[in-house]
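Q: Structure tokens for this one, please.
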Amino acid sequence: MQDGPGAAPDPTDAAEIEARRLRLLAGAQSTINELADVLSPLATAFSEAGHELYLVGGSVRDAVLGRLGTDLDFTTDARPDVVRAILDDYADAVWDTGIEFGTLSALKHDDAGIEQQIEITTYRADTYDGVSRNPEVVFGDTLEGDLVRRDFTVNAMAVRLHPDGQHEFIDPLGGMDALLVGVLDTPAAPEQSFSDDPLRMLRACRFVSQLGFTLAPRVFRAMTEMTAEIDRITVERVRVELDKMILGDYPVDGINMLCETGLADHVLPEVPGMKLERDEHMQHKDVYWHSLTVLKQAIDLEPEGPDLVLRWAALLHDIGKPATRAAKPGGGVTFHHHEVVGAKMVRKRMRTLKYSRQMVEDVSGLVFLHLRFHGYGDGQWTDSAVRRYVSDAGDLLPRLHRLVRADCTTRNKRRAAKLQSTYDSLENRIAEIEEKEDLARVRPDLDGNEIMKLLGLKPGPDVGRAWGYLKELRLDRGPLDRDEAEAELLRWWAEQSGGAERGAGAETAGPDSAREPKDESE
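A: Here is the predicted structure, written as tokens:
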């Protein structure tokens, strides 16, 4: 097994801890040396200018864990104007958008042509006003002063870079000790750290998800006492942290920590709200734990890495249950139409967090559709019903397949096997129909121009009504030849009293009809 958070040794075994420390440091040295073609010229340039350069923060942490990417963070005693001059000579491109905070960014291609994103920040010793998270930037004079202001000790390690490659590991705040036992702690008192920047509380939950770490008791205590401080953070920054958390390797742990500390009550209250409800099968502690199980199972079904839309849909698919719970005669409960209510709740929450329109539509669409399969029974659906299932899902169909399968959390092995077998049957039905017709694009057999020409119409609501009728016909009966489609359209139009009822109370249908009911505010 590789060294990492999941391989943390027994904290009482000092010999094993020390052995692992040495292995991780040796691995970090090797990882950093692999970037010699990028780092050595940069270290040389700073040295010749009379300044120090340190790889720092998450870059060092990830190097130690063997997961260093292409984003490299540095700190230096050189002031921004000196850093700019060095980067202008060294890098392929330079950006100074963060220069007022002492940060310059650059792009450098290594010998293999891989882009390395470089960010260099002058030592900082900032002060905060306790109102926003924006500091009054004060440049510092020491590395230790810069490290102590960072969010967590595992992110407060540094490596001094030397031109000869004999780099020096620096850890004045015990970051390696915390990493070895998988614990997140703050360099200073957590109350001060979170008061300076409340976003760090969300970052703690994100690192739980990404690294599999736990929180130091004092950090957990401070977070539970200071949850209201998160209201100082903009929704855009909250959204970024939530996405990083749900895309982590251990998102169930991160989400659970978000709820246990009470932060979720401020940024995602619908999730802890599910703790109040047991799911209808009574096989889980409550809908909350059922939803986390579905998330975990959905992750196991991801074909090519993390899928943000699928993960959000898995987590939120049952958030409509608390609002729709009703007692059944003779015992038990029902959650009728919780998928409809849940889809609207998803739309409202994700809009509040300022997600893109497409993201909102995709996640709410999956929530709205996740129960549709359960009407399939033992395969009694007609071909028309199968077409509608595919048409309503549209390009979400592959994700819907995974969500429905992940939503099977029963402990009854026979029932679980039957549900999976039934869904196999549905997928086979879809494949069989797709061999005969293009289910991915179910459209009327006549387009708008052909409808207008045949019926003698001008653009308007009547064309939309006719288009909608032909689409329904296409879903019911499959592809029609042109003569048959024209005959059916003319027959339908004649039934509309020669068009006298045109536009009267009928909804306009079209190719972009919604997957779910719209909010009243839309």
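A few notes: The two ends are 53 Å apart (CA to CA). The first helix runs from residue 14 to 33.
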